[in-house]
Amino acid sequence: MTPPSITGDNDGRRPPRRARYRHLLQCRCNPGRILEEDSRDRASPAARTATDEEVTMESTVNPGPASSSEGRRAGARAGAGADEESTATRLPPGPSAPRLVQGVTALVRQRRGLHHLRARYGDAFVVDWPVVGPSLVISTSSEIKQLYTAGDAVENLENHLGVMFGPDSLVVLNGDEHRVKRKLLSPPFHGRRLAAYDEIVRDETMRELATWPTDREFPVLPSMGRITLNVILRSIFGAEDAEVAELRRRMPRGIKTGAFLTVAPLPGLGGPCSLRARYQAFRRAFDAIVDRLIDKAERDRDLDRRDDVLALMVQARYDDGARMSRSEISDNVLSLVAAGHETVAVSLAWAVERLRRHPHVLDALVEEADAGGEELRKATILEVQRTRPVIDVVARRVRAERLTLGRWTVPEGHMVLVGSALIHDDESVFPNATVFDPSRFVAAKPDQYEWVPFGGGSRRCVGAAFAEMEMNVVLCTMLRAVTLLPTNARDERFHFNGVTNGPARGGRAAIRHRNRED
Ligand code: HEM
User: Fold this and answer.
1) Does residue 448 have a pLDDT over 90?
2) pLDDT tens digit string along 218-231?
3) Among candidate residues 280, 216, 212, 472, the one with its CA nearest the CA of residue 365
4) Cβ-contact 157, 267 below 8 angstroms
5) pTM of the shown model
6) Looking at ligand 1, which residue's alpha carbon is closest to its atom 19?
7) Which residues 6+ apart lie within 8 Å of 490 measured at CB?
8) 347 CA to middle of ligand 1, Å?
9) 300: CB partners within 8 A, 6+ apart
10) Which atom of ligand 1 has the smallest separation from the CA of 332?
11) Which of the four CATH numbers 3.30.420.40, 3.90.420.10, 1.10.630.10, 2.40.50.100 does domain 161-517 have?
């Protein structure tokens, strides 16, 4: 992976893009005012409007420096680059509608809404949504890099996710607690360990493929969901037994209820039939099952020969020799299953949706799979995730008194959202961005601050390598076992289900079984 620089020049490979990094100057007659140095970058009327509004917002929402001398100093700082500290809050404009209206609009318009805001306000803007509150949305690689390398100056939204995952989940922890837990939980998902799960993925895929109907369209997402749920459960718990079967039955609904709870504006409200009460009942049952599985693991004489994640967690020791408590194991098993199954299933459903609409790519992939190759397939997986990222935005809350991100200075408590879908669609970053073209990633790894479906920095998805392995094996097995039939149907729209953005019609598939019908 090419290491980009922190100054916004990234790696110097694309000079024209540098023109987009606008130097903001302080206007002498109005210290609060921000001017664009290079108006060529804002040629469209929408962008010009945005510049005007930026002035208004800066003086109403974020007053900026109090005196003109302070203003000139701040202007000099902003123009000098991101590495100098700024003391005044400096944010771009954004819609001024009340929070609830913005939240409803975001839910209704979803991905299109973010693109609309970029067209109107530029590559950074401020939104105010329920649950997260006022948030700066960024979408340039230099600002994304600064956020992802900000260390303890930023944190996750722990209160919000803790409702679902519990207080000991990796997803919820911050600072040293997060670092220590992440060190303990990462090994199963990297390097040679991954090879242990390869066979499970192939096996589960073959089992599911055998149920696919011939010559008849069907939504592939539920099928991919079964594959990925079985894969993650078997990878975490090893052998199938009554407890794992019960988890398989309970998990989909439990996770869905939990996901709704994390986006509910008032999760604490409600009686015995409320969302919260139903989730708590699921959580009690889940903890009891995991408890029984830990008991079994502790009695297992072959524990040290097992590859499953639970066995590794039971044996794991912190630097001081302490073991993980049962509630720590339970919170993290839940996090891994919840974070690691639907995301992969949705990406695979998108892969089917894309490939049926790009027969030349499909043909080349079949030829490659039959010949035992994988380069184009891996590139295709990257391109599916670029064009159809399942998570649109990744959030951080500012912990430091002020955080400077390129042109912006964000106050403590404010959220920063990385618009993954926005940078993935940016023409200056990915030329012909709307075209599905896996060849752009053949023999060219994407930049880690431009291609960001797994987030970034110390919180980058801990299961990213596992997910890539899983998608690779599922697609390879599928391409060898069935012929995917191309279609002229319109692209499927995005459908946001509260957590992920999947194909609205479930990724319609139509196949023939190769060995039987070719
Ligand atoms: C295509 C599949 C996947 C996508 C798109 C995805 C995406 C993400 C994203 C965007 C984040 C937040 C990163 C950040 O805040 O910077 C994340 C975190 C996380 N993911 Fe994934 N993920 C996927 C698969 C998986 C799998 C397979 C697992 C487990 C085996 C997993 C476990 C986790 C965990 C535990 C975290 C929290 C990490 C932390 O806070 O340190 N994910 N994922």
Assistant:
1) yes
2) 999 999 999 999 99
3) 472
4) no
5) 0.83
6) 461
7) none
8) 13
9) 306, 311
10) 35
11) 1.10.630.10
